[in-house]
Design goal:
binds ligand C2E, TIM Barrel, 585 residues, binds magnesium ion, Alpha-Beta Plaits, 46% helix, elongated, alpha/beta, 23 strands, eight-stranded mixed β-barrel, Beta-Lactamase
Length: 585
């Protein structure tokens, strides 16, 4: 134990620690007078104890560069209680010292700072071990910014300082959108150039007392000190985030191409979001993950609700692994009907997780977790194979052939050999390929259009149908969509919600249908809940409908019953009309 009795150190043990330290240690009081040094310091500098102890620290340097050296250190100590950096100085004994110096205020339990601790590591000896324990450097070689360990250290000091002065500290983590794609298309040399440029722009946005670090391949950390407390901290750091976006907004010219840089930012504040660097950084990452899920150029403040969501996600992740292995995933089927004939012509296969304790968990909740963890690959594989087997079962029962829509995730599309999975499923079941319909959202294919066109053309050539899902919600370029072999376009449910009340949305839907028909595509409208919505879609010449008006997604047996009984749209519409009439009487 270092502590002998409350408030006083065991002096012997403290001296033993100092003498065994590989770093040169020097303790200076607040007036700048050297109070104590250790043997390592004597060895490194060649300055004897009696020559420097009780003397002003400035005396250890050869005169001439004293202000230049000490002023920035003093400034940082004043601002945030900490300074660190490379040093190369000629000492009073003409010895040149090269190394890495850290100076930190020794924080008393109460009262003002009385001492500063200086730790000097000669080159070749630095080991600010972090995680893996390997030697790391204080500066990022590419951008010249601080590295993560230094950033964490600075954050620690800033937190300690803010704690004493009842101030706030803001931590921002910024992640460049689609950096890997930029890197792939421009080459790493220009990718590196872009990172340096971003580093400069970020540095120029912040005050001298703040700091920027490169904390991941395409992630930057920003530490905001000296910001207002409480709600003011949110305003201050939100303002900085805006400044950051403005700085990044200016297009960059690289390799003859104009590149638009967008980024997501997660923000945490001390003290409300975390009491130490680890908590603050973790929560900033949680906020960043939320920001990434939003639109581009989005910043998010951390909230404890996010932490709850993150915890639930973590719990979901481990039980999802189990669910995959123990058969808790099921496919439900939602009928799709031809609007004119009113007959069932297809179904969309929708995943349901039937959890032994929690009951049905929505795909909206677990698909994002499956995508983040890569579990979507075995799940997606299972969905395609199961849907194909089900088509074969209905065929063998001599039920009218139905087309089954299967949703593909963007991750699956990028990381799985979809062609192979589809081919194997078709071969195994011998079904008519036209009965399988793969649903893909716009965003899944727009990231890498060329690759997507290639894969989808191969799948289309097998006779499998392809649909564009949730149309109208992405950022697709209509001219590019032309190149894809889509047979069907599914209008997103959000349009249907407002179609009866919003003439603007009605006009958009009308235009989408006209465009799809000119490309010979079938149009399915999703989310039809009322007879009024159905009638509007009928009048707009939409081809097929899917929605709660007819049926929610149902278990396989129930859907099989519907097929056997030949249930039609008019049965349901008549029933709805009767209910309404009855209601009115
Ligand atoms: P989606 O592909 O757009 O599926 C349509 C969603 O709209 C389904 O939600 C369906 O239940 C819901 N829906 C249909 N009609 C109505 C209606 O009239 N009113 C309302 N309010 N909702 C309606 P669900 O089943 O919760 O699925 C949500 C999303 O999860 C799907 O959206 C799809 O993106 C994803 N998903 C579902 N199954 C799979 C799967 O096997 N693989 C992948 N990658 N994603 C899936
Ligand atoms: Mg779908
Ligand atoms: Mg959809």
């Amino acid at each position: 134990m270092v502590v002998k009795k409350e408030g006083s150190f065991d002096e012997k043990l403290l001296n033993l620690l100092l003498e065994n330290s590989l770093e040169g240690v020097l303790l200076v009081d607040r007036r700048g007078v050297v109070s104590q040094i250790n043997q390592a310091f004597v060895k490194m500098t060649g300055l004897q104890q009696d020559v420097i102890e009780s003397k002003s620290i400035v005396r250890i340097l050869k005169t001439g560069n004293v202000h230049e050296f000490f002023d920035p250190i003093r400034e940082d100590l004043w601002q945030c209680g900490f300074w660190q950096g490379e040093v190369q100085q000629t000492l009073v004994n003409d010895r040149i010292i090269k190394g890495y110096l850290k100076v930190s205020a020794v924080l008393p339990q109460n009262g003002p700072v009385r001492y500063y601790l200086c730790q000097l590591a000669e080159h070749g000896q630095i080991d600010l071990s972090y995680g893996g324990g390997q030697a790391i450097s204080a500066k990022d070689r590419l951008t010249n910014l601080a590295t993560l360990p230094v950033f964490t250290d600075r954050l620690l000091q800033a937190v300690a300082n803010a704690h004493r002065h009842e101030q706030s500290v803001g931590v921002m983590i910024l992640d460049i959108d689609r950096f890997h794609q930029i890197n792939d298309s421009l080459g790493t040399e220009l990718g590196d150039k872009l990172l340096c440029l971003i580093a400069d722009r970020l540095t120029s946005c912040l005050r001298d007392s703040d700091s920027v670090a490169r904390v991941g391949a395409d992630e930057f950390g920003m530490l905001l000190t000296d910001i207002d407390e409480g709600p003011g901290a949110v305003r201050n750091s939100g303002f900085v985030a805006q400044k950051v976006y403005e700085a990044l907004a200016e297009p960059v010219e690289l390799g003859g191409k104009i590149i638009e840089v967008t980024a997501a930012v997660g923000i945490t504040l001390f003290p409300q979001d975390g009491r130490n660097p680890e908590e603050l950084l973790n929560n900033a990452k949680t906020a960043l993950a939320h920001a990434r899920r939003g639109s581009r150029n989005n910043y998010q403040f951390f909230s404890h609700k996010m932490a709850d969501v993150a915890r639930r996600r973590f719990a979901l992740e481990s039980s999802l692994r189990e669910a995959v292995d123990s058969g808790q995933l099921h496919l439900f089927y939602q009928p799709q009907l031809d609007i004119k004939s009113g007959r069932i012509v297809g179904a969309e296969a929708l995943l349901r997780w039937i959890h032994p304790e929690q009951g049905i968990i929505s795909p909206m909740e677990f698909i994002p977790v499956a995508e983040e963890t890569g579990l979507i690959l075995p799940i997606g594989d299972w969905v395609i194979r199961t849907a194909c087997r089900q088509i074969a079962i209905w065929r063998d029962m001599n039920l009218p052939g139905v087309r089954v829509g299967v949703n593909l995730s963007a991750v699956q599309f990028k990381r799985q050999d979809i062609e192979k999975v589809v081919r194997e499923s078709l071969d195994e079941t011998g079904i008519d390929p036209g009965n399988l319909d793969l649903e893909i959202t716009e965003s899944a294919i727009m990231d890498d259009v060329q690759k997507a066109v290639l894969i989808l053309n191969h799948i289309g050539d097998m006779g499998v149908k392809l649909s564009i899902d949730d149309f109208g919600t992405g950022y697709s370029s209509l001219s590019q969509l032309r190149h894809f072999p889509f047979k069907t376009l599914k209008i997103d449910r959000s349009f249907v919600n407002s179609i009866a009340s919003d003439e603007g949305d009605k006009a958009i839907v009308n235009a989408i249908i006209a465009m799809a028909h000119s490309l010979n595509q079938t149009v399915i409208v999703e989310g039809v809940e009322t007879v009024e919505q159905l009638e509007i879609m009928q009048n707009l010449s939409c081809n097929e409908m899917q929605g709660f008006l007819f049926s929610a997604p149902v278990e396989v047996d129930k859907f099989t019953e519907m097929l056997k009984n030949g249930v039609e749209l008019k049965h349901v519409v008549d029933k709805a009309a009767n209910t309404n009439n009855n209601g009115k009487v």
